[in-house]
Design brief:
Blueprint lengths: L5 E8 L5 H4 L8 H12 L3 H9 L2 E8 L10 H21 L4 E6 L5 H13 L5 E4 L14 H10 L2 E4 L23 H15 L2 H4 L4 E4 L1 H4 L1 H14 L11 H7 L1 E4 L6 H11 L4 E2 L9 H10 L4 H15 L3
Parallel strand pairs: 1-2, 2-3, 3-4, 4-5, 5-6, 6-7, 7-8
Helix pairs in contact: 4-5, 5-6
The chain binds manganese (II) ion.
């Protein structure tokens, strides 16, 4: 079988100095997988390239496995360490520029520094955008202090990928349910809520060109889109106003990837609700199996045009490759 050419964009790496930050997510994941993932994360050679070649991924956009410096309590350290890991990633990309791209890692504790670092990563290091691991110190991206960041994102015309992370506190509904705390459920709730905060705060009215990427086929939001429009009308929204119904922003400002979702019905749902230009293949390497993701997308219920878009063309257009 001929493999459809692919670009994958939720593919992670690790730097030894960032393992302690990453370890803050250890309680969310089986200790077995957590230990095994590190070697794969730190490899930029044979193992990673073989996994890519096996499923036709021509190019992987690499990102640090989170939360990285977003878990750092000292702002200055966060800013310095983010620059360091971006320089490290750039050096790995430079070895294989045809196979790897990168998403900048940013210290969101300092919005102006994050904006400057994003600009450096895009203009000087040739990266394709940024990946942000959820909230930082309890602050979400719809906060007014991030105006400087969204202005720069708009100027640079690059996407911001919101990757799951834990919320600032573990609320009571997860009591006695460790399995719900993490990728099974709480990360979905957290990340979908983050995206909705941006929509309902009017972020995309203020920055109509801003581009947001969500993993996991949109963190359930495509399935809920009709209801978001319908219930927004009757919600207790006070003085909140939007120029368009919520779904408009999902069709104009949001893209989703298939990372960690290998199921036909939600794929069709995302395409029907958001459009075939808005869905992009990804694996979430090494936390998901590349062959499972690759085999699935090759056989998924897509016409040839849709499959080419989902596997390759949509990402090429969004990332300006
Ligand atoms: Mn991931």
């Amino acid at each position: 079988m001929t493999l459809t050419p692919k670009i994958a964009l939720e593919e992670h790496f690790m730097h030894p100095d960032f393992v302690d930050y990453w370890a803050t997510t250890a309680p969310n994941i089986s200790p077995n997988l957590f230990g095994k993932a590190r070697a794969a994360l730190e490899d930029f050679g044979e193992q990673r390239l073989a996994a890519m070649d096996g499923i036709g991924v021509n190019k992987a956009i690499l990102s640090l496995a989170g939360p990285g410096v977003q878990a750092e309590t000292r702002t200055e350290t966060a800013v310095t360490e983010a620059r360091k890991v971006n320089d490290f990633l750039a050096s790995e990309i430079a070895r294989r520029p045809e196979r790897y791209g990168g998403f900048a890692h940013l210290a969101m504790q300092d919005p102006a520094a994050a904006a400057d670092e994003l600009e450096r990563c895009v203009r000087d290091l040739g990266m394709q955008g940024a990946m942000i691991n959820g909230q930082t110190g309890g602050t979400y991206l719809d906060d007014d202090r991030y105006a400087v960041f969204w202005e720069r994102v708009s100027d640079l015309e690059v996407p911001v990928y919101i990757h799951p992370n834990n919320p600032p506190e573990r609320v009571h509904m997860y009591h006695d349910h460790n399995e719900l705390w993490g990728p099974v459920w709480s990360w979905t709730v957290e990340t979908a809520t983050h995206a909705l905060r941006l929509v309902f705060a009017g972020t995309f009215d203020r920055y109509p060109g801003a581009k947001l990427v969500l993993g996991h086929l949109g963190e359930t939001l495509p399935y809920l889109m009709w209801r978001l429009d319908s219930r927004w009308e009757i919600s207790n929204r006070g003085t909140m106003r939007l120029a368009h119904p919520p779904s408009t922003y999902f069709r104009r400002n949001v893209w989703v990837t298939t990372s960690g979702m290998c199921a036909d019905a939600p794929l069709r749902c995302a395409i029907e609700m958001m459009g075939p230009e808005r869905v992009m293949f990804s694996v979430d390497y090494p936390f998901e199996r590349p062959d499972e993701a690759g085999d699935w997308i090759e056989a998924a219920p897509l016409d040839d045009n849709e499959r080419r878009k989902v596997c390759h063309d949509n990402a090429a257009a969004l990332l300006n490759l």
